Amino acid sequence: MTAPDPFSLPPAPPAERRSPLPLIIGGGIVGLLLIVIGAGALAFTLLSQRASAIPELLPAETQIYAAITPNLSDLPNIDRLRRAFPETFDYQNTDETADFLQERFGVTFADDIAPWIGAEAAVAVYGLPIDQLGGAMGESANPFNPPATLDPLEDVDLSNANVLLIAAARDQRAAQAFLDKQRAFREGQGERFTSNTANGVTIYASESDETPFAAFALARNMVVFASNAASITKLIEQRSESALARNAQFQAVTQSLPNDRIGTIYIAGEALARFFDSLFEAGSLDESNPSIADARSAAQAMQGVGFTMAVIDSGLRFDAVTVFDQTRLSSELREQLSSFRPTVSPERAGEVSSAAIGVFSFAIPADWGERLRDQLDSAPETANALRDLEGNLGIDLDRDLFRWFHGEAVIAVLPNESAEAPVGGYFALRVADQAAAERGMQRLSELAEDLTGIRFQATSLGRAQVQAVEEGDIFFGYGFNGNDLVIAVGRQAMEAAFGAEQKLASFATYTNALKALPSPNSGVLYVNLNAARDLANRLGNDPIDPDTEQRLAPFRAITSSGTVGIDNRGAVRGTLLLSIEP
C-alpha cells in the first residue's frame, strides 16, 4: 500500500477549463515579488545585521571583539574602493590568499569556503592576563633590563588565553565538508587530532599547541576555529543571559557606534583599566603627575573603546568612540572632559588656500596659561625655574602671552616655489583683544632680537604691513589680518594667509569630507594627498615609481575631527575619512 503524500491536496471536483494566462501572469508577478523580496532580505542581512548573532555566543568577559562583513562585493559604493584597493577587495582571488589556504589548510576559497560563508565573521579574545601584560610592557621600558626590552612577552603566561575565529555558515553541508577536508589535509601533514562531543557537536582538537587553529567545530550555525577546545565548548553551552551581547559595557559602546558600519572592534573598558593599573604598579607611570592621575581616574570609569569602518559615497570612513560611565567620574574630571576641546567653527580651516598640503584647525582655551602656571607652581622647583626665566628675560608671561593668546587657530602647510625652502606655512590665531596681542608680539619680537641678533623690519604685503625677517628666499614674520594674528614662514605662505585665491571651502573634496565628520567639532585635520605627492616628487632624488603612483592616485585626502568633549551618553568620538576619487 502506498503511503499518502502529506503534501498532496484532496481531489477537486471537475471544473470548466479556463485560460491559464491569468495564472501565468499572476505567478510571474508573485515570482517577481518573491525575487525582489528575497534580494532585499539578502541585502538587509548583509548590510544591516552585521555580526548580530556572534555576540550572543561569546561570554560576557570577552576582552576584544572584532567583526566584519566578509561579503564586501555586496556593499554599496564598493566600485571606487575596489579600484583603490584591488587586492583587498578581491582578497578571495589573490595569490597570497590562495597560497595561505593551500599551504595551511589544503583548500581554496572558491571551492571550499565561498559555498558556505555567510554575512558574519569575527575574532574574539578573552582570558588575556592583563596584569602580566602591563607589567611586562612596563619592564620593557627599563633600559637596565635588556632581555625584557627585546622580548617583553617572553615571561607572560598565555596558556589560559582564548582566541576564536568565527564565521557564519549559510550551508551546513558545505561548511562541514570544508572542515573535513582541511582536517584530512592537516592529518596528511602529520598533525593528529582528538575529538569530544558537547551538546551533540563534535569538536576536534590538535595534539599540537603551536597553532592558533588548534580546535574547530561546526557549532550553532557557525564555523569556529579556536586556540583550544574548551573555548568552543563554552561557546556551545553559552547561556543568553551571560553572553557578551548582554554585557552592559559592550552595549554602551556598540550603541554609540554608527549604524552603517561594515567592521567593528570592541575593547572592554575593564581590560583597559586593569592594563592602566598594571603600568602604575610596574612603575612605568608616575601618579604624582596630575595629568597622569586624571588619566588613571578616567580609565577606571571607561566602559570601553570601539572602532568602526564604513563605506560611504566619498570614501572610507573610520570612527572611534570611548564611552565613560559618568557616575564613576569625579565632578572635576567630568567638567574637564566636557570642556576639554572647545568648539571650532567649520569656516576656520575652510579659509585656507586649497593648494595647502595640510591644515589643522583647533582652539586654544582661554585658561590654558592659568592651568599651565598652576601645574608648574604645584612643584617648588618648576615654580622657581619659571620665575627665574621671567626675571632673566624681562617678560611677564601672564601679561605678554597668557592673557591674550587664546581663541580659534589654524596651522597651514603650503608648497613654496623656492628651492631653498620648498615648504612654507603659517599659524593664524583669531584673538579677542587685538591691542593686547600687538603689544605682546612687540615685546616677544624685541626679546627674539635681543637673543638672536635678528631684526624685524616693516614689510609691505600688498595693502598690509607686516613685521618680517627676510634674506634671499628666507622669510619669517608676523602681522595682523583683521583680528587674526598671522605668524608665517615663507612670503608665499604669508600672502596666502592674507588672501587665498581659492579657499579650501570651495574645494569639493574638503566640503564632502566635512559632511562625514562630527558637527560641532573641536577642529579639523586635513591632508591633501595630491599636494603631498607633488611635494614628494619635487623633493625626491628619484620620482615616485609609476606603479606606486598609479596605486596612490585614487586617494585624494585624509580628513579627521572629533566631537567637543563628552556627550550625554558619556561618549567621546573621533572620525577619519579617506577620500577616494569617484
TrEMBL record:
The keyword Transmembrane helix applies. Keywords: Membrane, Transmembrane, Transmembrane helix. InterPro entries: DUF3352. The chain crosses the membrane at residues 20-47. It comes from the Bacteria. The keyword Transmembrane applies. It holds the Pfam family DUF3352. This is DUF3352 domain-containing protein. It comes from Chloroflexus islandicus.
